[in-house]
Design a protein that fits this description.
By secondary structure, the protein is α/β, with parallel strands linked by helices. The chain is built from 16 helices and 13 strands. It folds into three domains: about 110 residues, Probable tRNA modification gtpase trme, domain 1 (Gyrase A, domain 2); about 130 residues, tRNA modification GTPase MnmE domain 2 (Four Helix Bundle (Hemerythrin (Met), subunit A), Up-down Bundle); about 150 residues, Rossmann fold.
């Protein structure tokens, strides 16, 4: 690419270190023009990947920062181009001044994701690996980060590439037979082709099945806290978050609308909604809140029903039990264990497989709740990281490839003419090519890289 891009690669807040990054044909030349090494040796004369101590300077030679600089030469860089970085003090003002100096020396502002896009266009990453970069940046749990890191290493692309190459081999053989019928070409190895197609279909089907787990890993589990007024729903939310997010008062009906927060519990990302207390009311505003609470429970994948352990079960508690019954997963949390207990736990246990006794006030019992959630979602986790597809684009392409391979296999087994098998095999190749970025349209790649921050 003819132009050289530059950007601040770290956040726009004060920090210990801030990084300026360049990539392009003129990256090393531009970096050398704004840096004075204390050794007296020009930056461009240093070997790749060596940290050099010196001064970042403006166009007029004024010192902007005392920092470290490093250069790397193509093609063995992240982008596949010459690159340079300045590791500065993390002042937004200093970084902005340094970026201005780079622009004045000939660089231009990088677009969102342009460094990674160049890595993709220059063959340093395929498209699944490029998408893994933004997934890794956006990861909100350790499991999500591990899965994205394995994708970045190529766990998906390597598996898909093997299938892609196998389909190419099959297509090439069928083409040879169809295009050159009079030539002495090795006959079809039907059993071998069947085995290859069956194995390919099996591997792709596993990836397709992982997508629902991937959605949960990336977006979190939609969860709702329900219960009657003053059972301690908002107190539980605050205890889990570790700060006072929801207003808590002794007055029933304090929470009148839903409050949503993300938190990690049991290693699972929960999109947790605190709802209004479920009860009959004449207050029009509170009535809307109760309706939203029931709706939230109906739509949730996990419902946490909270009960006041210091009081006996009421009709309103039974309504909360009914609301929790519609969810795929539910947990009963018996709150206020710090007070004398009056609740009949046998009635709770008859309605819930998982029951946890806590005190949101004292924050006791939360470890048990953590372990219940961990165990509840254990079966949804892969044996090893990197086995989960999190991208809808990838899932759609894999589904098309799987359908084509299944059709090719069926045609082969039923003795159809070679062109029928070839047509389906080539459709599978096209779908996997889109997945890896070998044949993807520019508007698709533009949309993917627009999700990135500037500087990555």
């Amino acid at each position: 690419m003819p132009d050289t891009i530059a950007a601040i690669a770290t956040g726009a807040v004060r920090s210990a270190i801030g990084v300026l990054r360049l990539s392009g044909d003129e990256a090393i030349k531009i970096a050398s023009s704004v840096f004075r090494a204390y050794s007296g040796k020009p930056l461009h004369e240093y070997k790749s990947r060596r940290l050099v101590y010196g001064e970042l300077v403006s166009k007029d030679g004024g010192v902007l920062d005392v920092c470290l600089a490093t250069i790397s030469r193509a093609p063995n860089t992240y982008t596949g181009e010459d690159t340079a970085e300045f590791h500065c003090h993390g002042s937004p003002t200093v970084l902005a001044a340094g970026l201005k100096a780079l622009f004045e020396a000939g660089a231009r502002q990088a677009l969102p994701g342009e460094f990674t896009k160049r890595a993709f266009l220059n063959g340093r990453l395929d498209l699944t690996q490029a998408e893994a970069v933004i997934d890794l940046i956006d990861a909100e749990t350790e499991a999500a980060a591990k899965n994205a890191a394995c994708h970045l290493k190529g766990s998906v692309s390597q598996k898909v590439s093997r299938i892609y190459d196998a389909l190419i081999d099959i297509s090439a053989h069928f083409h040879a037979v169809i295009d050159y019928p009079d030539e002495d070409i090795e006959p079809f190895q039907k059993a071998q082709f069947e085995e290859t197609l069956e194995l390919s279909a099996f591997e792709l089907e596993k990836l397709i099945r992982s997508f629902e787990r991937g959605r949960v890993l990336r977006e979190g589990v939609k969860s709702a806290i329900v219960g009657r007024p003053n059972a301690g729903k908002s107190s539980l939310l605050n205890a889990l978050l570790g700060y006072e997010r929801a207003i808590v008062t002794p007055i029933p009906g304090t929470t009148r609308d839903t409050i949503e927060e993300k938190l990690t519990l049991g290693g699972v990302l929960l999109r947790l909604i605190d709802t209004a207390g479920i009860r009959k009311t004449e207050d029009e505003v509170e009535k809307i809140g109760v309706e939203r609470a029931i709706e939230a429970a109906r739509e949730a994948e996990l419902v946490i029903a909270v009960f006041d352990g210091s009081e006996e079960l009421t009709g309103e508690d039974m309504e909360a039990i009914n609301a929790a019954g519609s969810a795929k997963r539910s947990i009963a949390v018996v709150n206020k264990s710090d007070l004398p207990q009056k609740i009949d736990l046998s009635k709770i246990r008859s309605s819930f497989r998982s029951v946890c006794v806590v005190s949101a006030l004292d924050r006791t019992g939360l470890e048990k709740l953590d372990s219940i959630v961990r165990e509840m979602f254990e079966g949804d986790r892969p044996e090893t990281a990197g086995e989960i597809i999190t991208s809808a684009r990838q899932a759609e392409a894999i589904s098309r490839a799987h359908a084509s391979i299944a059709a090719a296999l069926s045609a082969l087994k039923e003795g159809f003419t070679p062109d029928a098998v070839l047509s389906e095999a080539e459709s599978g190749v096209a779908a996997l090519g889109e997945l890896l970025g070998k044949t993807v349209r520019s508007d698709v790649t533009d949309r993917i890289f627009s999700r990135f921050c500037v500087g990555k």
